[in-house]
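Late entry, evening session. Most of the bench is empty. Finally got around to the prediction I had been postponing all week. Sequence below, unchanged from the version circulated by S.P.
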Amino acid sequence: MKKFTTAALLVGSMMSASASAALMFDQDVTNNVIMGTGITNGAFTTDRANGVEVGLRAKLRHNAAGAAENTFNSNGDGTYSFAAGVAPTQAAPTGVWSFEWSINSSYDGTGGALNSLTYMLSLDTDPSAAVSFLTFDPINDINPGSGVVAWDHSIGDNTTAESAGAETTSVDTIGYGAAISANNLAQNSWKPHWFIPGFDPTLDGTYDFALTAKNLNGATVASTSIQVIVGAGATIPEPGTIAILMTGLLGLAARKKFAK
């Protein structure tokens, strides 16, 4: 997928809360993985609620030969583990791993089109045990690479075959607008350094990712989160920490204005 320059997007601090999403681990997303070529389903951490499915996972993007493969290194609990270091055959700041997200706004046929909701994708920019989030709407917000509301996501519906998602260019606002108003499934695969300022793949650390879907009244309809553990010395939080961090994102939504 295309590299985007880092823009001045919302960086939010997390707030404690007691409720959490009912996450499911090592799941297939509905109905297929429609992005890229030869990318298989599975290993997603998902939430399915109110007709909406959101999923996140991490994967080995560059193996010893520098090639991508369907290796997700899931620990079965919403965490994914990878080695630290610059990816083989690549230059810094490219690491060995990437993260992938999936949004299905009507996985069971009871929801609406992609543009019937707003979304929050939050990326942890701090490799330490602390968190500092870069947060934006990957469907409705302005694409930082093009300056307009258009992206190069793979887009389809519940009948789209594996690797058969359609993509508009990142500057095609008319085509993109039509795509998100007529479809319910969007996916993408991104390298962390495309969005995380100063990302250093050689550092041991932990990176939290969260994806939330909200209706137009601002109520959360589905939310998921994962943690990527990098290097042997990474800090693994106590059980339940990721869920607490995830719900802190809900407080940010009330203050966030989504681009239309």
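Two things to note before I forget:
The chain has a mean pLDDT of 86.
The longest strand covers residues 220-230.
Will write this up properly tomorrow.
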